Automatic annotation (TrEMBL):
Name the record gives this protein: polynucleotide adenylyltransferase
GO molecular function per UniProt: poly(A) RNA polymerase activity
Domain Terminal uridylyltransferase 4/7 nucleotidyltransferase: 1-49
Signal peptide (residue range): none
Originating organism: Acanthochromis polyacanthus
GO biological process: RNA 3'-end processing
Enzyme class: transferase
SUPFAM superfamilies membership: Nucleotidyltransferase (SSF81301), PAP/OAS1 substrate-binding domain (SSF81631)
Enzyme Commission number: 2.7.7.19
Length: 153
């Protein structure tokens, strides 16, 4: 199935779902998406197909969320606050939704008593697989995992 077919199927499926409202599709965007709003929370959801970066980000967030049950609740609460303050609209100069998740993750990693491991901690790497093709920066391997801590960072 090709990207346009997948997005049309997603749009069709969401249009009959009672959980989502304000369904739109932007097939002419740099990254074509189907956009909807989750009815209960009012949070915006953007679905793309064939976007490897989005897939990798989602895989990481899913792996890290499976380690800490509070993460999802904190992210949803933070995103709701950002929506109320109207700072969650990237297209209007605000921040994209995943940024709020990354801020919560960073906070939970940097607490005095850390609730989450650092980004490429061995335990996270076991459930999160980076595609080496994604890494186009010579000399830097994002797929490498190490338990070493560099005190100069």
């Amino acid at each position: 199935m090709h990207q346009p077919d997948v997005l049309l199927l997603v749009k069709e499926t969401l249009s009959v779902s009672p959980l989502f409202v304000d369904l739109e599709a932007d097939f002419h965007a740099r990254v074509p998406v189907v956009i909807c709003k989750e009815k209960k929370s009012g949070l915006i959801c953007k679905v793309s197909a064939g976007n490897e970066n989005a897939f990798q980000t989602t895989s990481y967030l899913s792996a890290i969320a499976s380690r800490e049950p509070l993460l999802l609740l904190l992210v949803l609460g933070f995103r709701r606050w950002a929506q109320i303050c109207q700072i969650d609209r990237a297209e209007e100069g605000g921040l994209p939704p995943y940024v709020f998740a990354l801020m919560v993750i960073y906070f939970l990693q940097k607490r005095k008593e850390s609730l989450l491991p650092a980004y490429l901690n061995q335990e996270v790497c076991a459930s999160f697989h980076l595609d080496p093709v994604i890494n186009k920066t010579p000399g830097i391997s994002l797929a490498f995992c190490s338990m070493e801590i560099n005190p100069s960072i």
